[in-house]
Amino acid sequence: MHDGSGRIVVQNLTKNFGQVAAVQNLSFQVEPGSVTGFLGPNGAGKTTTLRMLLGLVTPTAGHATINGQLFHQLENPARVVGAVLEAQGFHPSRTARDHLRVYCAAMGMPDQRADEMLNLVGLGSAATRSAGGFSLGMKQRLALATALLGDPQVLVLDEPANGLDPEGIAWLRTFLKAFAASGRTVLISSHLLAEVEQTIDQVVIISHGQTMYYGQLDELRRSQQSRVIVQPADPNKLVAALQEAQITNVTPMPEGRVAVVGATVQQIGDVAARAGVALYGVQEEKADLEQLFFRLTSGQYAAPGTQLPPPGQGQPQQGYAQPVGQQGYPPNQAPPQQFQQQGQQSGYHQPPPGYQPGYQQQGTPPGGWGPPPGQPPTGTPPGGWGPPPQQQQQYQAPQQDQQHGGNA
Amino acid sequence: MGRLISAEFRKILTTRLWWALAIPAVLLAVGWAWGVSAFVTDIADDVADSDLLATTGIEVSDMSWSVLALTRAMNIATIFPMVFGALALASEINRKTITTTFLTASSRASVLGAKAITYTIWGLVYGVVVAGAASLGTVLGSNPDYLPEGGDWFLVLMSGIIACVLWTLLGMGVGALLGSPVGALVLLLVYASFVGPVGELILFGVTEGSHLTGWMPNGSANGLTGATASEVLFGQVQEIVGNNAVLAQADIEDFDIGVRFAAGAPGAYSLWVSGLIFLGWTMIFFVSGLLRNQRRDIT
Ligand SMILES: Nc1ncnc2c1ncn2[C@@H]1O[C@H](COP(=O)(O)OP(=O)(O)O)[C@@H](O)[C@H]1O
Ligand SMILES: [Mg+2]
């Protein structure tokens, strides 16, 4: 009935809600064995896209397939794709276990699967509590348990980190990577790049319902570029001289300053000297990934429809400049993965056996990016996920940033 | 389909609604049947004591007046299975559990089909429970002389049970069509308890006693339950009159209209015709609710 590939294909997907063009001509593909991030600011059309993929919203045009089939062509869809959707509902007076058993029955899974999944997501002790009394984070976990009930090949998650505690976020990261490494497919949406940056291999960035970037995260990293802000005596003269020197990506800024992309400080200095324009100030700004995301989605630097930002200088970018657009993201030197090593992961348990083998071999994840500096190699926890290498490794970075602060 | 029906049963049994509606349904059916049968008994006793019937030679106790209590009690208690049905899909849409429900089913139509089967069974359960309660109330309130024969009793209860099933499905269709529990409940309750009955009275008056009311959803449902009771009484009266030349044919027809009125089904057709008309209404709402959900965007 389906080709079993685990591939998600989104083709020219378009959705209009009356006057609102929620999604416009979106195309991308998600391969099994990888985690794809689906990023965009609030209202960009992420939820609408995922719901079209899952047959909950009828596209205005285009289509989306899982395993080569439209959702409604899947015979027992929950055995193929599991979904964690925003605002996923629970009956407030139904217990977590009963909720899962309802859907066990619907998809033909044995009842004990409900308790297994509750234990997996750390809700084992809340099995007999009503979902109405759950915190947002607990509801997210219950939604994940529901999604995993059918042991699906494809997992689709819409902002699953919302409301999760740091421990939960760290666990989710590990889980998703292992899930993908076992040859399955993960598509995860977020409005925060930093939230999923450590997890994803491939990224689709959308804004106003249109694709801004689609490709490997590494490519995006490589494409990031610096811009130079100069304060010339005569902006017009400098811009003319720069353009003559084939440096055309020049943007005027307030107070007579000029932002130049695609040229080094030396090049600009040389051009200015030749043109006889005095420079009162030169400042180089390096974009980090988050800024790049911000640029791509704010429409300020990239006109809608632009596929890729202009190629950067191709420098390796170890040194991230100080973030300019402060959004409270952690500096990348302290990757949130540190939390894997934090204490006992009391709530979480062994994954079902099916997921383990892949995880063991996970040394180099598909995307080809190694563990961040100072991290232990990710691939070798003793038995699947459980507590990652906290035995060998103590706290790596003592300081905690805001987002992940507040030890659980 | 079996899997989805089992899931629907679990949904119902893991929440309180089914018994939260069954309890008042039982209380209302017992109370209503008791009250009506006591009332009917009082009147019948008064009539029996009067000189009026002495001239005709009719024995009031030959008539099973308490079928009116049975039918009235079951008719009023159908409100509860109707509410139960109305919430079947509407509350899933409202609580957004419909997302997971659709994600775990092979198609939306299969979900609606499984719900239809499940709620038919639950409509039957409500019907049987309400029938028992109405019978109990009738026995408690009625003079034993006025109780119907076993066969008539059974026929009235059967028609009430069928009415419960059909009201459940009609409620489900309306809920599926509107997608909002509040909207569906307000519409159904206002219609079934006010607009329907009052409108039918007016229609009945304006059209000078035509069968038009019997074509309305509420009118046909009333016919389903009420016509049976009035047929029982009418049959008895004809039998009595057969031995008795004093009453004219016109009087018998007046009696028929009056007794249909008393049974709460003015202008209604007979049991089977009413039942088919009401089944038609149920299918209209159910199918349009199904089609509506086939296309609904779940956002
Ligand atoms: N049911 C709906 N009716 C009308 N507009 C909608 C509906 N759902 C989403 N939208 C609009 O579509 C756009 C994309 O929304 P959404 O897909 O939820 O974005 P995201 O998940 O990226 O935050 C928004 O402008 C939103 O207001
Ligand atoms: Mg969203």
UniProtKB/TrEMBL annotation, chain A:
Region (Disordered): 302-408
ABC transporter domain ranges (all copies): 8-233
CDD domains noted in UniProt: ABC_BcrA_bacitracin_resist (cd03268)
Molecular function in Gene Ontology: ATP binding; ATP hydrolysis activity
Key words, A-Z: ATP-binding, Nucleotide-binding, Transport
InterPro entries referenced in this protein's UniProt entry, alphabetically: AAA+_ATPase (IPR003593), ABC_transporter-like_ATP-bd (IPR003439), ABC_transporter-like_CS (IPR017871), P-loop_NTPase (IPR027417)
Composition skew (Pro residues), residue ranges: 368-390
Biased composition (Low complexity): 314-349, 391-408
Annotated PROSITE patterns: ABC_TRANSPORTER_1 (PS00211), ABC_TRANSPORTER_2 (PS50893)
Family membership noted in the UniProt record: Belongs to the ABC transporter superfamily.
PANTHER family hit by this protein: ABC TRANSPORTER, ATP-BINDING PROTEIN
Protein name: ABC transporter domain-containing protein
Lineage of source species: Bacteria, Bacillati, Actinomycetota, Actinomycetes, Pseudonocardiales
Automatic annotation (TrEMBL), chain B:
Species of provenance: Actinophytocola xanthii
Name of the protein described by the UniProt record: ABC transporter permease
Residue spans crossing the bilayer: 12-34, 69-90, 116-141, 153-178, 185-206, 269-291
Highest taxon, organism lineage: Bacteria
Keyword terms of this UniProt record: Membrane, Transmembrane, Transmembrane helix
Statement: the UniProt record of this protein carries the keyword ATP-binding: no
The keyword Transmembrane is assigned to this record: yes
